[in-house]
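# step 3/5: fold
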Amino acid sequence: MNINVSTFESFYNLAKQEIIQNHPNKALIYIQIHLKNHPSDAYAYLLKGNIYSLLKQYQNSIIQYDKCNKLNPSIAECYNSLAYSYSKLNKYQTAIKLVSTAIELNPKFLDAYYNKGIFLMKSKTKYAFNEALKTFTKLYSLNRNMHEALLQRGICLVRLNRLEEALIELNTFIELVPNNVQAFFELGYILSSLGKYQEAIEANNKVLNLNPNFINAHYNKALCYIELKNFNSAIDEFNEVLKINNNDVLSLFKRGECYIEQKHFTHALADFEKVIDFEKFNASAYYNKGICLSNFKNYREAKKAFQIAVKLNPKNEVYYHTLGNCLRKMKKHKEAIEMYEKGKEIKKNKDNKNIFNEQNNKDNFEDDDLINKININNLNKINLENKNIIFKRTKTTKEINKCNFENNINENGLVSHIKEVLKGDSINKLVKKLDFKKAVTMKHKLDKFNKK
């Protein structure tokens, strides 16, 4: 490389020109020469950091940006670039803080707003999507030509499950930018989620017209066809996915299910065996393999498949029931009955748990409402721990069963007891709303409290 220039800006400008021409390695040589002569040039360290970032050497870029910040901590572009490097290392919380600093230094820094929104979305929490939505809204208010902000706002609304709003946002974006692959893909997802499967298929067709290798569009089309009970078309779409990626386990699994719907058990069995090759611990794949083998009346092998499914997922009552059916057809009635009983027990436990959770949620809501109404002045002698003992609903049926219902305690006696212990008129409201079992539970807790 021949260098015939020596002024302050020459090497710096040469570095910038090489970046524009996409020659980051040459740019790196020029900026290093510049820094040898001018080691206190903060903007040169910023440029050097950008060069390392282009080379995807993000740790090195961070070192250069830190040097820039030490020399001049008020350069907004440096914080934005530093944030980008941290995001590439999946350190999104750090990136968000840094890009927020860039915005504080320059409240009209459009790139910083965009990056902040993207970093928030990648952190994948509900709170983050709300914040990202606000950020893209602010960006669009600063510059109405930033149409990308509309797209990202629409995606945020999708992730927040505000689908109707997302639909409006994306349609607005598509009117402005009619050939955006991501927009049509997100539109397809929204439409399928709203049950508009044919429209969703059309949106995914537009995706594939723009990008024939967009594998997820084929997959989503297939799911829409399944909802429409068009299993032949669904299989065709899964075939397209598997042409691009023959190891796509989800497509193999879903195609196998479609074959079962069509009673093409040979093809289905082949798919589920491939799934098992990739995922040895996929209980559903073993279960479906058993279904296929049962239809071939190969009950011995089907039994093995169902047993593995049960072992991998012992809390699925359907697996026990189907294994029971298989054993019954093998004339192993005693074993079949055992499987049926286990399945019934699991289902019963699930149903009881669901009922209890619903009741518990309801009780917690009622108790919270009552606590808010209690006159705190009457409870100022009771510490926080004791308040929890008195007013919290028992959490499990086991605790309720421990209460002694055989004591000759009537409801009026309980009311008097509770009044005496708590000595607060405001508790009347609580007592009146309690049923008998709830009151007994409260007394049991109060007795424990008194002993302490």
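# step 4/5: annotate
Residues 375-451 form one domain.
# step 5/5: archive (pending)
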